[in-house]
Amino acid sequence: MRILLVFGLVAVALAEITRFEGEKVFRLQPVLDEHVTVIKNLAQSIELDFWNPESEKQVGIDMDVDIRVHAQYLDLVYTTLEQSGMEYEILLEDLQAAVDGQADNKPSPRAHSYTKYNTWAQIQSWIASISTSNKDLISKEVIGNTYEGRPMTLLKLGRKSSFAKPAIFMDCGIHAREWISPAFCQWFVKEALSTFGSDAQMTSLLNQMDVYVLPVFNIDGYEYTHTNNRMWRKTRSRKSGTSCVGADPNRNFDAGWCTLGASSNPCSDTFCGYSPESEIEVKNVANFIRRNKAVIKAYLTVHSYSQLLLFPYSYSYNLAAHHSELLKVAEGASAALRSLYGTRYTSGPGATTIYPAAGGSDDWAYDLGVKYSYTFELRDTGRYGFLLPESQIKPTCEETMLAVKYIAAYVQKNLY
């Protein structure tokens, strides 16, 4: 009986939801090399959660550094910052209040909603229903299972054809806590299906091309953010010999793997994994794109936050062979996005526009031969960070649709 009781207590402890009372998100503004050193030393001495950039390795002068600080370390952080003379501001005064405030006040529907952050169960049931809604335009395919056994279902949008059409591949939710990203993939599918036949551009696109949409890439991690820890980022894979769970799927692709801006420490949020494609989710996506690389002409991956439209390279400071064209398209897409609500995006190659980061999916796809390879970093620029309120889902998705449609129209006219 005692043994059963112990196991029961362990199970309860494991299922405990992480709370964030008293935690704060700081924006630091290092302008001296000494400030950079202070931040890196802090990261070595206490546990910090880097929101932007994604680890202390990427910190440099004249960049905003957003960090989440646990309540027990606040006094130390305040003292260190005051002594260093570094300027800073508090973005989120109480992280738990921000987590609680993310949902709007409307009653939460039991079913799927395009203006709410849906659970994986709701998304899975939405995938099942929407894939039968218009069989002339949509079909689904399981490209493999996640580490915890959840099916990775890919939606294929496009008018049925007797021949292989050129295609665009889009994924959302590589990083578990970036909830606005899967919300966009769901919105895109809804818009594509509902405007086919009335919107000339979408009708032309789905007549002539296919769009593959992976609504949630890192399903296990996404589920975990809903059930246990809202701030979880990585996959949920386990390996004997370490108690640290998961790897960063966007450091696990075979593109300059585990060099710049990635960590070989399994406990790090930017852990590159034990080898390229060690994460089954990454392998499943890479295998699908490799199998279909003859038809896939564009790769779009959707992240948050920072309001950026990036393209290769992130693992190197070298410019991509198609740099000028990729920049022109990114700037056009950013202008289209801005036309709706005035939201400003910055465009450019990853390494020089934000920071170097090896093992990313966009670099990998580009090196494979997918020329139009882009990473979106959606709203905002730090006011809410990963906790973008549900009231911003609709405007964020509406403006992002304009950018995606701009890129898609360009690719459609410039097939290679």
UniProtKB/TrEMBL annotation:
GO cellular component term, pick one: extracellular space
Reactions catalysed: Preferential release of a C-terminal lysine or arginine amino acid
Keyword field contains Ribosomal protein: no
E.C. numbers: 3.4.17.2
Organism: Takifugu bimaculatus
Keyword Signal assigned: yes
Any one GO MF annotation of this record: zinc ion binding
Principal cellular location given in the protein's record: other
Signal peptide per UniProt: 1-15
Protein name as it appears in the record: Carboxypeptidase B
